[in-house]
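Internal QA ticket QA-208
Title: Verify multi-chain structure generation after dependency bump
Assignee: T.L.

Test input:
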Amino acid sequence: QSALTQPASVSGSPGQSITISCTGTSSDVGGYDYVSWYQQHPGKAPKLMIYDVSNRPSGVSNRFSGSKSGNTASLTISGLQAEDEADYYCTSYTSSSTWVFGGGTKLTVL
Amino acid sequence: EVQLVESGGGLVQPGGSLRLSCAASGFTFSNYWMHWVRQAPGKGLVWVSLIYSDGSSTSYADSVKGRFTISRDNAKNTLYLQMNSLRAEDTAVYYCARTYCNGATCFKAWGYWGQGTLVTVSS
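Actual output:
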């Protein structure tokens, strides 16, 4: 199972919006609405930000939103804040009853 | 408060074995699917394995299939990962993670993670 494709890095200024893409295949992202997104700060465990493509767990800011079109899912962060600077990973359930992650995207808040 | 505490990591030689444990508390462990996810130093997250709540079914990434075995003891609220025939590329921080649930509905995502335990495979 090949990893999902994410950009290695994205950046934005405080208050701006950014979008991180996550591209897979019809066997994972395109085949299921089971895409989730995780935020990871250095040295910390990942934190769930979005599940089932576009749903936010309680306690996650509504500045975070998710969507999907075909084989590509996206995470959008609006109103960028300094504390959003972190690594972001997408993951999808697959047709093999396994999960596959993206390679991760480093978000820099300028 | 949900807590997941991994242990058992350390330095092991190539070809060796190690058993990781994940002690769970703050929730009814026997009700939840549990996973192992790993992260090599400076690299991304990689899903490793899943076990159903009652232990009746398991699933593995191709990279560990036949070498790793996931298990659980619901009486002890503990998740395990038996790792055999270890390779240098298995060097990573290993996280246990609990399925995210909202009320009675559970999802294919991980809502709680442990702090991780480092496994280093080197001679």
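Spot checks passed. The first strand of chain A starts at residue 9 and ends at 12.
Status: verified.
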